[in-house]
Every structure is written in C-alpha cells, then in structure tokens.
Amino acid sequence: MSAPIVIDGARDILLLCDHASNAVPDGIDLGVEPAVMGEHMAIDIGAEPLTRALSAALGAPAILATVSRLVIDLHREPDHPALVPVESDQVAVPGNVGADRFDRIARFHAPYHALVACEVRTRRPRLIVAIHSFTRQLRGAAPRMLEAGVLYNRDDRAAAIMIAGLRAAGVETGDNAPYSGRMLNATLNRHGEAQGIACVSIEVRNNLIADTAGVARWTKILAPLIERARAETGGGA
C-alpha cells in the first residue's frame, strides 16, 4: 500500500502524519538491514498510533502516510537534497544511490501532497497539526533530554499556546527544538502557512510513545492543548 490513509472526522482540525509508516513498496530495494526499518530513520516511532488516538479523542480528520521516509521523505521539498536519502543517522541507504527521484516524487510525494491540499481546500480547517517523533539519541551525539518539541516557522500562534501548555504540565519542551521548524517545516509551510491557516508541528520523544500506555498518556496531554490552540488561534494569519 502506498496511497495515504484518510481518517474521517467532523472537526475543523486536521492532523497530519508524514512519517507514519516504514513500508517499502514493491520494486524498491533500499539495501539496508531489516532491523533498520524498525528504527527512527525509517519511521517516526509511535507517531501513527498517537495520531490515530488524537483523531479519535478530538473527532478530527487525519491523513497518514504509508511509505517509509527512507523511500522518500514526504516532509521535504521536492528539490531538497535529502528527499531520497542515501544516508540517515550514519546508516547508508545504498539502494537510493542513483535512484530516479522524479519517479519517487510522481509515485509517492506528489499524490500525498495533492491529497493533503485537497483535504485542506475542501475542509478549510481552522488548525493543522503535524505529529512527529524524535529519537532520544542520534549516533555519536549526546542524549536528548527533551520530552517534546514544538516546531513552527513564521506563524507561531498555535506553537506559543502548545509550548506554554506543555511546560505548565511539567513537560520538558523544546521551542523549535530538538530542531527548528524554520529549517524543517515543508509540509506545514505548504499546506498551513501558505494558506493562511494556523499550524504547528508536535514532536514527542519516541521512547515515550512506543507502547499503548505511552500513547494514551500523551493523548491526554495533547488533546486539550490542541483544542485550546484551535479555539485561540482564530482565522487567517
């Protein structure tokens, strides 16, 4: 399966999960060890069940990608050098060396973003929330102590609410950290900011949402904050 999954919902909140899957479509051989496909390089661990749980809790529609970020990173611009990665966190992806990036864009990237654009145009959500997860430790790097990060580019309306709410709840929260939405915000730049829709990306450390109990805990933390961000961000940017 490579067509994105759409979960229906009546609310004017749209949830997106660009890195929900570690699936590799037929005809593509990445040349990596099977164990790699269970690591953060291939999938945002916990992001898919968290998105589903938030969708159910909020009554909000969601779009889930169904192809691994090692096949093509849907959260990158089409001309980004790491769109079809040949290396990720010091792990080589030999099957992507010389890969036809235009074929990958046509098969996976363009249809995903066309579907998101259609949903945004049809539903005109008041708030778009992207759900991601990050690894506790990159190879050769210091451990990340943050429990969550809130990422944004120019429009910080929803981000400010999420950061304040998470910190008030005692969550160690990064403001445009562990990396910056001013550098990595492709999906929301295109479908949120460019459309004048309030948007925010929420990153949760993946070991905290790696099981059912963790997903349930973070759903209880995030759902009311998303509701608050929706209520307080208003209309266009």
Automatic annotation (TrEMBL):
GO molecular function: hydrolase activity
Keyword Hydrolase in record: yes
Methyltransferase recorded as keyword: no
Keywords linked to the UniProt accession: Hydrolase
Pfam families registered for this protein in UniProt: FGase
The name this protein goes by in its record: Putative N-formylglutamate amidohydrolase
Organism: Sphingomonas yantingensis
